[in-house]
């Protein structure tokens, strides 16, 4: 597990580079905000989390409960899920807008075209919507 990255993952870098190409400027991993969002766009009062489907318990084809040490994994993944929920609630209470991009939107058999994902995020940034969830 020590080889698993928590930040600067491939999906995260992919989203960041595409947003930057479209002229968006942002900060990454702001430790002053709940949940340390992957991307912070202060101009839009918005944060973006790029979540791995396994680690954050997404109900999709990429998530499967491990067969070995099921109690350990259930406890670990459930804690991640609860931490995510609390961070999002705190951010919304602080009047931040929250977007979650799930790994299944970028890979797997139900993935979307990258430009569609970025268009969806850009559309949300230019709207007044508080939340967005992008998944495959």
Q: In DSSP terms, counting alpha (H) and pi (I) runs of 4 or more, how many helices? A: 3
Structural class of the helices, strands and pairings?
A: alpha/beta
Total strand count, please?
5
The main β sheet shows up as: 5 strands, mixed
- Poorly predicted runs are none
Report a brief summary of the structure.
The chain has 136 residues and is α/β, with parallel strands linked by helices. It contains 3 helices and 5 strands, in the order H-E-E-E-H-E-H-E. A 5-stranded mixed beta sheet has the order 1-2-3-4-5, sandwiched between helices.
What does this structure look like?
The chain has 136 residues and is an alpha/beta fold. It has one domain (10-134): VSR Endonuclease (Endonuclease, Chain A, 3-Layer(aba) Sandwich). It has 3 helices and 5 strands. It has helices at 10-21, 70-93, 114-125; strands at residues 27-28, 39-41, 46-51, 97-102, 131-134. It has a 5-stranded mixed beta sheet, with helices on both faces.
Task: List its salient traits.
136 residues, alpha/beta, Endonuclease, Chain A, 5-stranded mixed beta sheet, 3 helices, 5 strands
What is the topology?
Layout: H1 10-21, E1 27-28, E2 39-41, E3 46-51, H2 70-93, E4 97-102, H3 114-125, E5 131-134
Parallel strand pairs: 3-4, 4-5
Antiparallel strand pairs: 1-2, 2-3
């Amino acid at each position: 597990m020590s080889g698993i990255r928590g930040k600067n993952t491939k999906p995260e870098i992919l989203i960041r580079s595409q947003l930057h190409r479209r002229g968006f400027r942002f900060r990454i991993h702001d430790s002053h905000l709940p949940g340390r969002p992957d991307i912070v766009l202060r101009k839009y009062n918005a944060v973006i989390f790029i979540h791995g489907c396994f680690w954050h318990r997404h109900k999709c084809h990429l998530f499967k409960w491990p067969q070995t040490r099921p109690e350990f994994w259930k406890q670990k993944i459930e804690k991640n899920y609860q931490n995510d929920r609390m961070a999002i609630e705190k951010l919304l209470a602080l009047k931040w807008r929250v977007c979650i991009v799930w790994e299944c939107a970028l890979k797997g058999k139900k993935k979307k075209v990258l430009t569609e994902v970025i268009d969806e995020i850009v559309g949300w940034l230019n709207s007044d919507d508080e939340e967005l969830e992008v998944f495959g």
